Amino acid sequence: MFESIFKRGVLSNSTTTQTPDLTVDVHAHLLPQLDDGPVDIEQSIEIIKEMYQIGYRKIIVTPHVMTGYYNNAYEDILQSLHILRSVLKRRNIAMELEAAAEYYLEDELFRLIERKEVLTFGGNRKYLLFEASFVTKASYILEAALRIKQAGYTPVLAHPERYVNLNDIEAINRLAYNGVLFQINIGSLTGYYSKQAQELAELLINRKLVAFLGSDCHSLTQLESIKQAFKLKIFKEATKLDILNNTLLENKSTVYA
């Protein structure tokens, strides 16, 4: 689909056995019983232990916030974070946890912004992770991102490679030019979601437009695709870009404003 835009030979998908240079995850659904992630805290702990084994040292947990489906108030998210942190401490699991959210692009998001009830990450940089319907027009995403910026936040579009209307370089460049940061899902590099998502993820890497790499992990099964992606040369190329994940390692504060 994107053959006319980039050359596959630049970033080959041959494998490598090197350990990935990635210690911070910015997108994970690991707080139990808040969304479509773990059903209990034991599942959360099991995934976190496995993520520690593959090199992560900090995880920003980002439960869905979507009216009618995941009505997660920021107080509930922070309470769940506190409980999970306490259990990790008791079990001597040295994973740093921070909480933000993955906000669905809807009117309620802007009401939360007006009330200063959104969770962000990155301290004063106020990165706000958001998603939309996978068939949302690029123009609507741009309009929403500009409103997020005007409110004082840095818009981070979750898994842009999965949006069917972001299938040309012009739409992508327009978003990037207007300050939208892109967080691609690591699993997309294996074709976990679709061939189209894989190709667009490669395009974003090739164009050096990736700000964050995220696991978007919900389960141990999904984590397997992420571990497979770590073996790919294109993943190693991605970690050599100016991605921002590891700049968050020493930033331990959750910001809601």
UniProtKB/TrEMBL annotation:
The UniProt entry, under InterPro entries, shows: Caps_polysacc_synth_CpsB/CapC, Pol/histidinol_Pase-like
EC code(s) of this entry: 3.1.3.48
Write out the catalysed reaction.
Answer: O-phospho-L-tyrosyl-[protein] + H2O = L-tyrosyl-[protein] + phosphate
The record's annotation in Pfam families points to: CpsB_CapC
Gene Ontology molecular function, alphabetical: manganese ion binding; protein tyrosine phosphatase activity
EC class of this enzyme?
hydrolase
Which keywords does UniProt give here?
A: Hydrolase
Entry similarity comment: Belongs to the metallo-dependent hydrolases superfamily. CpsB/CapC family.
Q: What is this protein called?
A: protein-tyrosine-phosphatase
Can you name the source organism? Emticicia aquatilis
